[in-house]
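Bug #77: duplicate submission created two jobs. Keeping one. Sequence:
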Amino acid sequence: MKQTMANVAIEIGNRILDNTVIGAVFIIGFLFTEQFAVSEIPVTWWSWLLAIIAVDFTYYWMHRIEHERRILWAVHSVHHSSQEYNLTTALRLSWLESLYEWLFFIPLLLIGFDAIQVLASLFAVVLYQTWIHTEKVGKLGWLDRILNTPSVHRVHHATNPDYIDKNYGGILIIWDRLFGTYQAENEKPIYGLTTQLESSNPLTINFGEFRTIYKDVIHAESASHKASYAFGRTGWQPSKWAKQTVDE
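Kept job's structure:
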């Protein structure tokens, strides 16, 4: 119940922010970038289909990079931090994501997709993922190899060694199969983070990883280490520490 209530509280914060300054940044960024498009794709039924596919493809890479770069993981880890997994987990989204996620869609705007069309397609991709946050739906056979389904997404939220950093797709899971990040559900998922966040405080959930980064940065031995702790790959450690870990 505490985790579910935390999810609801975080969603309330998101509704307030998305309807004010952060939502404005996202929309203004889209509309501003559209002015520099090098071509114009007409808004038709086929361009809507193409836009959804293009947005879904872009979402895959955005989502993957958010896992792979620590400063972005500090934001996105909010969504993964719950040890419970139900429909309200879909509401557990960082208060900061909308500040930068629009940047990933700039290429689609520059090649001529309509800004409102891209925004609506992104909304469709995100909205689709609401229903897959559940343990009530089992495997769906061949659909699990084409679409992002509850079984597929349970893997994405799990900390089991074989499941970490897998299944990034939004609607289509074929991107994961193409780029080597697909994993079928073959054992019971253990949800949360590899180092569990033992808190249901929305502020701690949203900003706890930034505090950890700060501690790593101030104790780092060099400027390059400081930069790597903040902007390097998630889980980066200085080579001597990594060697020591392997030896142990």
